[in-house]
Specification:
The chain has helices at residues 14-26, 46-61, 85-100, 167-187, and strands at residues 8-11, 32-35, 65-74, 81-82, 106-116, 121-132, 147-149. The chain has 188 residues and is an alpha/beta fold.
Length: 188
């Protein structure tokens, strides 16, 4: 059994925090929360956006933190909304995305977890292939009601086990492997 370590998730999105907390708790990592709205640079690189946000978050919180940035990349829309997913969701929502699509619905979710403390800035990314559904299904947040993971028939919003297979789970798993190793090395 792993020791618990202090770490904070920084976001204005409490849904993301709840998912991250549940996932990291399963790996033995204790996670606190700083609800904070961070400025987001305009970039086509999720990693660049995430690293800037993590650096800014650490500068404000002065504690080891992680942030998560993600995007829905739709092939037939040349990767749109991609790094602009949050803005697009607030502007046109799932209905707007569905209205933009005709027949080609292949997409992927990409998640970047970025850790920052006084010495380290490190990112962990993961993707999950899937498709955009033809209608909204289920009661989820964000793009969950329209994203169907590859080899599944239900949207994220309809799944009870979303946290066991999502893009966020995959990036948090990569992060947790690194973080637990780092903490164990520091204990020696």
């Amino acid at each position: 059994m792993h020791k618990s370590f202090d770490l904070y998730f920084v976001s204005s999105n409490s849904h993301k925090y709840k998912e991250a907390k549940s996932i990291l708790n399963s790996f033995g990592i204790k996670l606190g929360f700083f609800k904070l709205s961070l400025d987001e640079i305009q970039s086509t690189s999720l990693k660049e956006i995430a690293e800037k946000k993590a650096y800014d978050a650490f500068s404000k919180c002065k504690k080891p933190i992680i942030i998560e940035d993600d995007g829905l990349f739709i092939d037939s829309l040349n990767g749109f909304p991609g790094p602009y997913s949050s803005y697009v969701f607030k502007t046109i929502g799932n209905k707007g995305i569905l209205n933009l699509l005709t027949t080609k619905r292949k997409a992927k979710f990409v998640s970047i977890i970025t850790y920052c403390d006084k010495k380290i800035l490190k990112s962990f990314d993961a993707k999950l292939d899937g498709t955009v559904s033809k209608s909204q299904n289920g009661m989820g947040w964000g793009y969950d009601p329209i994203f169907i993971p590859k080899n599944y028939k239900k949207t994220f919003a309809e799944m009870k086990n979303k946290n066991d297979l999502s893009h966020r789970f995959k990036s948090l798993k990569k992060f947790s492997n690194w973080y637990l190793h780092k903490m164990e090395s520091n204990d020696r």
